[in-house]
Amino acid sequence: MKLSSALSLKIKQMAFSTSFLLWFFVTFSIAFPHSVVDAFVGTYGVNYGRLADNIPAPESVVTLLKAAKIRNVRIYDSDHSVLQAFKGSGIEIIIGLNNGLVKDVGASEDRAIAWVKENVEAFVPGTRIRGVAVGNEILGSGDQGLMEALLPAVKNVYSALERLNLAKEIEVSSPHSAAVFADSYPPSDGVFKDTVLPYMRPLLQFFSQIHSPFYMNIYPFLAYISDPVTIDIKYALFKKNKGVYDSKSKLHYDNMFDAQIDAAYAALDKAGFGKTEVIVSETGWASRGDANEVGASVKNAKTYNSNLRKKLLKKKGTPARPKTPVKAYVFALFNENLKPGPTSERNFGLFKADGSTAYDIGFTGLVPSSASSSFISIKGNGLQGLLGSSLSLMIYASCSVAVLLLMM
Fold it and tell me: Closest Cα to residue 226, out of 165, 295, 284?
C-alpha cells in the first residue's frame, strides 16, 4: 500500500525528530549520569558512630534507617562490615579516613590509591559511597603535624579517585570545629584564626576547584553550657524568643544554629571563598550530662532535635543565605557507651541501643516495615526508573517509525 507524498514527508519528519530526541537524551544521560549528584540527598542526615558494645548490627541499622526514612549517613571510618551491610540499601554514605591515617596518606600517593581501592572501589556502586571525609576537626586541633598533612592527604585521596574514575561520583571533604574561628559573634564578625588561615586558605582553594562544600560541626549545646547565664536557652533550642540582631548585617536571628552557620559564611567570605556552601556535618543535643553540663536533658534533646528536623524539612536557608537550603547531619544515631569524656559525649543518640527511639520526634524505631522499605526503594530509584522508562519509550517510538519507513 502506497502512502501519499505529504504523509511520507510527515513520517520522515517525525522520524528525524524522534531520532534527534533519542540522540539528545542518550548523550546527556551519558554526560550527566544519575550517579553524578551531590553527596547529600534532601536536607537531613545522621552520623552513625559506633564507639559502643551494645548497639545493633549494621544490617539492623540499615533496617532502622529505612524505617525512619533517613537517607544520608556519615561514618567515621570505612568499616567493611558496615559498607557491606549498606549494599543495595539506597542510603547515601560518607565514609571517613580517620585522623590516624592522614599523615600516611598525605605522604604517599600509593598509600592513598591503596586505601581508595580497598575501601571505596571495592564497594561501589552497590554501596552508595558518596563522599570521603579526610580527617575530622584537624585544623582546630592545634596538632601542627596533622594540620600540615591535611591538604596533601586531601589531594592524594582526590587524585586516587580520579585515577580510578570515581572523582565525579564521590566528594572529598574535611569537617571543621568551631575552634577554627577567632570570632563568631555577631555572625557577620565570623573570621578564621590567624594561626589557622595558612592551612585553611589553600584547603579552601583546592575545595573550590573540585566543588566541595565547607563542612562544619555546629553545636548550640556546647555554646549554651559554656555560658548558660548569658545565652537564652530558648534561642539555642529554636523556641520562641526575642532573638539576636546583627547591627552590621542588619539581620535578625531567632536561633543560634542559623547564627553559627552564617558566622561560617562570614569567615569564608573574608577568606575569599564566599560562594562556598556550608553543610553542617554534626549537630545535636545531649539527653544526659554531668552536673556542670547545664541543659543536658531528655526534654531539651527532644526539643532541639524535633525543631531542627522541622526546620530542615522546610528546606529553607539562613538569614544571610536565604536561597541556600540548610543541610545537616545530626549527631548521633545511637548513644555510644564507650566514648570517652564527659557524660554528655555518651548521650547524643536519637535511638537507644535496642533500636527504639530515645524520645519521640517522629521517627519509627527498629521494627519491620514494608511501607518504609518501599519508600526508600521508590525514592532511591525513582529518577533512574523514570529515565529508564523514558528511554524505552523513545526507543520503541523510533523503531515504530523506522518500520513505517521501511513499509513505504
Answer: 295
- What pLDDT is recorded for position 349? 98
If we measure between CA atoms, which residue out of 210, 385, 236 comes closest to residue 296? 236
> Is the pLDDT assigned to residue 234 strictly greater than 80?
yes
The pLDDT of residue 135: 98
- DSSP codes joined into one string, 80-149: HHHHHHTTTS--EEEEEE-HHHHHHHHH-HHHHHHHHIIIIITTTTTS-EEEEEESSS-TTT--HHHHHH
pLDDT at 255 over 70: yes
Rounded Cα distance between 130 and 42, Å, is 14
Does the pLDDT value for residue 155 go beyond 60?
yes
Specify whether the backbone of 379 is left (phi greater than 0), alpha (psi in -120 to 50) or beta.
Answer: alpha
**Is the pLDDT score of 222 beyond 70?**
yes
| Residues near 293 by beta carbon (within 8 Å), at least 6 away in sequence | 225, 286, 342, 343, 344
Spatial neighbors of 348 by CB under 8 A, at least 6 apart, are 284, 285, 286, 287, 301, 331, 332, 335, 336
Residues with a catalytic annotation lie at 137, 282
d(CA 174, CA 343): 27
φ and ψ at 328, to 5 degrees?
A: -150, 145
Q: How many CB atoms lie within 10 A of CB 21?
A: 14
Q: Which residues contact 309 (CB under 8 A, 6 or more apart)?
A: 44, 330, 361, 362
Stretch 334-353: mean pLDDT: 96
Residue 2 half-sphere exposure, CB side, CA atoms within 13 Å? 3
Report the pLDDT value the prediction gives residue 13, as an integer from 0 to 100: 54
For residue 359, count CB atoms less than 10 angstroms from its CB and return exposed for 0-12, middle for 13-18, buried for 19 or more. middle
Q: Which three cell numbers stand for residue 268?
A: 569564608
Spatial contact of 301 and 344, defined as CB atoms under 8 Å apart = no
Cis peptide before 67 (omega within 30 of 0): no
pLDDT score of 378 more than 50:
no
- What is the sign of the dihedral through the CA atoms of 126, 127, 131 and 135? negative
Residues 72, 309, 382, 64, CA torsion sign: positive
Span 211-226, mean pLDDT? 97
Spatial contact of 209 and 148, defined as CB atoms under 8 Å apart = no
pLDDT, the chain, mean? 86
Give the CA angle between residues 145, 332, 335 to the nearest 5°. 105
Q: What is the pLDDT of residue 364?
A: 84
Query: Which residue, 86, 50, 51, 80, is CA-closest to 66?
Result: 86
